[in-house]
Amino acid sequence: MPLQAEVGVTEVLSPAQLWRRRVAFSAVKNRLKEKWRAGEPTYGAWLSIPSPLVAEAAAWAGFDYVCVDMQHGVADYQVAINMLAAMRGADTTPIVRVPWLEPGIIGRVLDAGALGVVIPMVNSRAEAQAAVAACRYAPVGARSFGPIRASMVFGSDYFSWANDEIACIPMVETRQAVEAVDDILSVPGIDAVYVGPADLSITYGLPPGVDNPGTVFDEAIATVVDSCQRHGVTPGIHSISGLAAKRVGNGFRMITVSSDLQSLNAGMRGDVRVANDGGSASSSTKIY
């Protein structure tokens, strides 16, 4: 449906005006958090390639959230802003994984328009408190006010709802964090936690990967999910599409199922393999 018809206007509006109108007509600013409140599983994409075009393609692919990875991905702040801008208008929630628990970069990605922040290596209650403080304005936090892009995209009332709608997502990705998970999740203001399975596996003496079934890894993620359920926090995990059903069965409700670089590698290698093997043509005849 054209956005003009959706909001009941007939005049010609710029894309920015259309988007601001759409946001103004929506009582819920963060659809990802809305789904979490309803207990629905949500699926996301992970972006390591510093490309607004890739971000735009991912945003329109149908994921509940798309995350720009500034920790292990190669996007810097300027590119991250362009990637967030490229997602505008799509029915997905833009989030960012920051390089570390540091208030400056957390505030900057929120000012740039991220509606959630994934924060690495949160291992204690004190670090969880620092993560929440960086995501919230006073009196519940210490975020400095200056939503230079967020107020343009989401409207001049951004301050009035930001504390409620911004998703604060600390990562639980070490044995230390699992052992302290109840203390971590007792901090008010945490919306979800995100399990990093590779680092978590390493700290338990296991090889890095998205799964280590039949090992202490299973017990560790079960401990996280159980704690989340008791504290009313959404459990999340980095994963792949082939494990999505298993992770939903484990109790996770935020599940990353795709990544840009892996999808690119798999698709291109598959194309070369089909060509070398003389396989049949794809059912699609599209060039773009």
Could you describe the largest sheet, including whether it forms a barrel? 8 strands, parallel, barrel
Could you state the order of secondary-structure elements as H and E? HHHEHEHEHEHHHEHHEHHEHEH
CATH class: Alpha Beta
- Number of separate helices: 15
State the shape: globular
Number of strands: 8
Written overview of the protein:
Helix content is 45%, strand content 14%. It has helices at residues 3-7, 15-24, 31-37, 52-59, 77-86, 103-111, 125-135, 150-154, 158-165, 175-179, 181-185, 197-203, 216-231, 244-250, 260-277; strands at residues 42-47, 65-69, 93-97, 116-119, 167-172, 192-195, 234-238, 254-259. The protein has an eight-stranded parallel beta barrel, surrounded by eight helices. Helix 5 (77-86) links the parallel strand 2 (65-69) and strand 3 (93-97). The protein is globular, with a radius of gyration of 20 Å. It starts with a helix and ends in an 11-residue tail after the last helix. Mean pLDDT is 91; it is low at 1-9 and 23-27.
What is the compact description of this entry?
By secondary structure, the chain is of the alpha/beta class. The chain is built from 15 helices and eight strands. The protein has a single domain (31-272), classed as Phosphoenolpyruvate-binding domains (TIM Barrel), CATH 3.20.20.
What attributes does this structure have?
8 strands, 288 residues, TIM Barrel, disordered N terminus, alpha/beta, 15 helices, single chain, eight-stranded parallel barrel, globular
Please outline the helices and strands:
Layout: H1 3-7, H2 15-24, H3 31-37, E1 42-47, H4 52-59, E2 65-69, H5 77-86, E3 93-97, H6 103-111, E4 116-119, H7 125-135, H8 150-154, H9 158-165, E5 167-172, H10 175-179, H11 181-185, E6 192-195, H12 197-203, H13 216-231, E7 234-238, H14 244-250, E8 254-259, H15 260-277
Parallel strand pairs: 1-2, 1-8, 2-3, 3-4, 4-5, 5-6, 6-7, 7-8
Helix pairs in contact: 4-5, 6-7
